[in-house]
Amino acid sequence: MATNKFLTTLLVALLLFSCKEKKESKALETTEKRPNIILIMADDQGWGDLSINGNTNLSTPNIDALAQNGATFENFFVQPVCSPTRAELLTGRYFGRLGVYRTSAGGERMNLGETTIAEILKQVGYQTAAYGKWHNGMQPPYHPNSRGFDDYYGFTSGHWGNYFSPMLEHNGKIVKGKGFLVDDLTDHGLDFIQKNQEEPFFLYLPYNTPHSPMQVPDEYWNSFQGRNLEMKYHGEEEENENFTRAALAMVENIDYNVGRVTSKLKELKLEENTIIIYLSDNGPNGWRYNDGMRGKKGSTDEGGVRSPFFIQWKGKIPAGKKISRIAGAIDLLPTLANLAGAKVETKRPLDGKNLSSLLFNENLKWDDRLIVNHWGGKTSIRSQNYRLDHENRLYDMNNDHGQTTDVSKQFSEVADSLKKAKIDWLATIQPPIKDERPFTLGHPDFEYTQIPARDGIPHGNIKRSNRYPNNTFFTNWTNEKDYITWDVEVLADGEFEVELYYTMKPENEGVGIQLSHGKSMLATRITETHDPPLTGMENDRDPRIESYVKDFKPKILGNIKLRKGRNPLILKASHFSRQEAIDVRLLMFRRIN
Prior knowledge:
Blueprint: H1 2-31, E1 36-43, H2 61-69, E2 71-73, E3 76-77, H3 82-91, H4 117-122, E4 127-133, E5 151-155, E6 167-170, E7 173-176, H5 181-195, E8 201-210, H6 218-221, H7 241-267, E9 274-280, H8 302-305, E10 306-307, E11 309-312, E12 321-323, E13 327-328, H9 332-339, H10 356-360, E14 371-375, E15 378-382, E16 386-388, E17 394-396, H11 412-429, E18 439-441, E19 448-452, E20 457-459, E21 463-464, E22 474-475, E23 483-490, E24 494-503, E25 511-517, E26 520-526, E27 553-562, E28 565-574, E29 583-591
């Protein structure tokens, strides 16, 4: 009897100890919660487009505060244009290894088999979302939902034609935006933060401004319109001051939205457990103040590739710290993975370095390194102290960041070593010059596949609405022999509902439509006319170079059974007048089995 009583007492004690241990373990997990990560990237904003970098033409207190409350990398480098930088940021590898070589027509896609920072963070419990301009592939498995992001809202193309309540997508489905696009993207980001405040999250906000078209709400434009610019471009090229004013107004709108993000973190008491990063994807998209640096967007010179880079982690990263060591977009994956306590396991070796020790340690011994910038057949090499430009001129970047004096003869050994590094890089990493990859359709794990005009080829009289493909539509369909093709690989057999986004003049009512892929074919007629005007110019603060847009009407053409394999997807039209058949924006395929 005494023995049974003793055993009962012992069992109760063990259970109580076990419960206490579990509670203590849970408390430990709570206090050591992995940090949230918010990565904000502007589009075509220059290093000099911030008040903290000396530009008195505008005020950016919320972005500046990230630098004041965190660390600044004073020599941070991205690539000269959008899609290469985004690919490097996501993978930690030079874009030349990734199959990225253009900003449209398929050349912006990252190769399959690459590991993204979102995939790494998901493996350790992060909720992931991307809201904005993706620009690394549209069709699954290139789509953000198939590259590690649970939720995606925005546009996957390289630029967009309307920033006010435009046509967008949400996880592949076409939707209509709400209000000014950057504000709308931020709204989705704030909702994501609110919903995931109890668990670690990774929020990627790749904004679309100040990329053209130069559209911004009145409340920002009104304070810039006609304003005298105190800080102007330093070189011989002519600055379009109206364009500059629009760009700076757009940056002030970005600043407002950065403030909304930081306020939400404070409201939810998440600020001290959230890492916030701010950068841009390339140099400024116009000749404007950039602290005397040579080059702008598209250039491999300092002004085309130097980006602001601020990282705040309150209570962890010393406030106001400035780091002079060179770093780049390739470093983000290894750095963020380390800060999140995630193991980096990629199928291919990284080019980037983990910058964590630079953030937390003083007087650190840091090995010298090189960062390579490449675009349009031009390659530049940056060391800590020098830049070798695409013509093999050498510049002392500590004393001549405007690249005015070639010192290659004075420092011939340095020049020779950087020339060799350039040759070696080009021999192993240079991007391809032609894309042989088809556009994918019907991934079995995803419901929607968008096939836009951007990725198609017109035949006959059909023309693209603009020379820059990303936001274009097909028009001038004047002959029944005209047609459109897309190089498409169907990834798995299936039946698909097909929706066409079109416009059609009243005189062409009843135009016949035929869509085929291999032996599969769908034929129907379009009976409902829709002939809206071109729009966009009414909101442009400066004339655009991209295509204007229209309100395209969706029409379900019917269902088509597609077989796995690669064939041209062919769109034909018949039974129309001598005017025009239809204008075509995109085809949407929805897998129904």
